Structure formats: structure tokens, C-alpha cells
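Issue 218. Parser rejects a valid record. Input:
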Amino acid sequence: MEKLASVFDGEKFDIDPSLETPKEEFEYLRRELVSRKYSPKTIKAYIHYNRDFLRFIEKKPEEAANDDIKNYLFHLADKRGLSASTLNIAINALKFYYGGVLKRNFAFEIKRPKKDKKLPVVLSQKEVAKILSSVANIKHKAVLMLTYSAGLRVSEVVKLKVEDIDSQRKLIHIRGAKGRKDRYTILSDVALITLTEYWREFGRSKWLFPSQDKENHITTRTVEKIFTNACKKANIKKNVTVHSLRHSFATHLLESGTDLRYIQELLGHESSRTTEIYTHVSNKDLGKIKSPLDSVDIKEVKMKK
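Output the parser choked on:
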């Protein structure tokens, strides 16, 4: 990193803390997180926020005070504009290190911000069809089709192995999902046809969707790019991400009459309250409500010139 910094001597730039070699205290933090089976993504986030916190206060861990954490969280919210959910991750990171590892109690005095009550952006079935139809590459089409048809997280679809597809029972085995939980979800007949066609031509790996070297699976970033490009080709104007396919899957099931409890199980939600958000974006009941404008005699409405 010093050699890299010397190249940009005289220029102002920031180095992502996650690229630096962990200091001894953060190596110990990493080992603690690994031993407790935290996910690689969480481990990276926890180390990042703890290192970023020390950079912000310019102190050693043992010198950190309660006000330092409050000032740091205010900085994240006010200057960096972090969302409530991201702030909660930072709080969890600090609590784990200072409370769980260093046995300091002050971190527990921090009050959590209220979560933003945002509704998910949902695609219509016609829009989903346009997106899937815009993809010519059979592998890319199979990835997006499987994501939508089974309501998968992008981190789940990239890690699928051939053995996880049960074509006889029409089920997909999701292993080690969020919260280190296994579950089964449905396998679409249409998705299976595309998947079979793709596998007959390109299947040569233990991974269902391998990277170019065949030894590893494709990355979540690759799937995000595939989806973004497909939306551009399909002329989709909504502010959507690949995760919107999962939201759309749940909403479309609810609108077709599927019980919320089954949707919860398919999605792998621990709490039913998480699944209930789809009742707010479904048109199942809202579509039955008639706007008062539709009862107005348009002939009586005079347009102003």
C-alpha cells in the first residue's frame, strides 16, 4: 500500500480500509467472528467499521469513549448519509468488538436509529417477461429466470450447485442461506427447460453457474451487471436492482392467492413481519377499490381554456 501511495504522491486520495493488512487487534476480531460462524460479508463489514471508527477518532481502541462512538455515528448519518439499516450494521460492529471482545460496556448505551419504512419496488409480470426476453445469452437468461422463478437472493443463486436442483421433485435446495439456514424453494417448469438447455451445452462444473475458470462460481456483481443490462435493453424505467426479482416473485405469488405463510417459507424469512411488507405493494386488494373519479360524469367536468 505504501508503494501504491508513492505513485500518487501529492494527490489527495482515500484507501479503502478493507484493502489494508489487518492490525493485530483486528486479526483477533476476525478470528472471533470466524469462530462464531459469521458470514464473510459480515466479517468484512465489522472489520471495516471498527477500523474506520479508529481512523475517525484518531485514538487506540482502549482510549475510545462513549462520545467518540456517538460522534462517529452522527458523522456516518449526517456527513456520509448512511441509511438506518447500514447504521445498525456499524453499531453491531462496534458492540461486538468493544462489548463482546474488549468487554467494554459503553457501546451498549448507543440508541439504534429507527429503520426506514421503505416499500420494495416491484416489477409487473409483463416487465419481468420483457427483461427475460431481452437476454440472448442462455446462461444469463437461466440465472435471471431462476432468481425470479424461485425468489432467490443473488447471493443464493450464484452459489447453487448441480446437486441442489431436484428436477424430479421440482425443488431447489438452498444451503447456508441468510442466518446459516437451509431451505427448499420451488423449481419452475419453464426455468427447468431453460436450465436443462443451458446445462447440456455448457455444464462442466460442480457449480451451476461457474465463472470462466470453472473452479469458482460467478460473482454477485456479475449477476447485477447482467440484470442492469437486461433492464436497459427492455427499456425498464423503474429504479430496480436484481433483488427486485425476489420482491416481484413474492408479490406475484401473493396476488395469485398464495398464503403468506407459504411465501414466508419459500423466501426463508425468519419473521412473518418481514414477509408482510408485500401486502403493502400487492394490488390484490387495492385493485378492487374504485377511484371516486371513475364515478364522476366526465361530461359535467368543464376544462378551463
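Fixed in the parser; the record now loads. The chain has a mean pLDDT of 84.
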